[in-house]
Fold this sequence. Notes:
The structure holds 2 protein chains of 2 kinds. By secondary structure, chain A is mainly beta. Chain A has no helices and 11 strands. In chain A, strands 2, 4, 5, 6, 9, 10 and 11 form a 7-stranded mixed β-sheet that branches. In chain A, strands 1-3-8-7 form a 4-stranded antiparallel β-sheet, with no helix packed on it. Chain A is globular and about 40 Å long. By secondary structure, chain B is mainly β. In chain B, strand 7 and strand 8 form a beta hairpin.
Amino acid sequence: EAQVTQNPRYLITVTGKKLTVTCSQNMNHEYMSWYRQDPGLGLRQIYYSMNVEVTDKGDVPEGYKVSRKEKRNFPLILESPSPNQTSLYFCASSLLAGPTPFFGPGTRLTVL
Amino acid sequence: AQSVTQLGSHVSVSEGALVLLRCNYSSSVPPYLFWYVQYPNQGLQLLLKYTTGATLVKGINGFEAEFKKSETSFHLTKPSAHMSDAAEYFCAVRTAGGNTPLVFGKGTRLSVIA
């Protein structure tokens, strides 16, 4: 089954404790991206990647890092999380020239 | 830069009434347009999309949307609202033919009153 998976689905952590949210897709998509969703703001892109070892900032990259060492994986790293990063995070993937992104199920992160 | 405006952060309709959720976009090149629905505590589900071809697009659950280039609009409609349609709806735009991000509107919460 074609899918984008994210882990963990729910996470409660404390300020400053490094964490990684994993994202994996099985569709051989080149393009992957991370979004955060906040009430009243919709979804905003954090980072994206057009292929292995190619990443770039989206609209709200501050406080986040990503890597793309393999085509299927695109982890989101918060090296020193802060409460303002409490949010719902979505990973998405698509073909580079394809119109439709596939979204993961979301990760709800709470930073205390 | 692309942008999406959804008119009305909250829309209430009676059960059986017409649902109309408005979306206007700005894009300097032909866009791909999407509507997503998010039920409480769930992820995003693609309702429908316009890429090329017919400008009236039918989606799941009886929803449809019409791409109107002259009005830069992609409004979502459903003839008769059902209680199960209560959710948040997001309009999104992506530039056709490129490796560009999907840009979302801020969302419209639909309430259906019995």
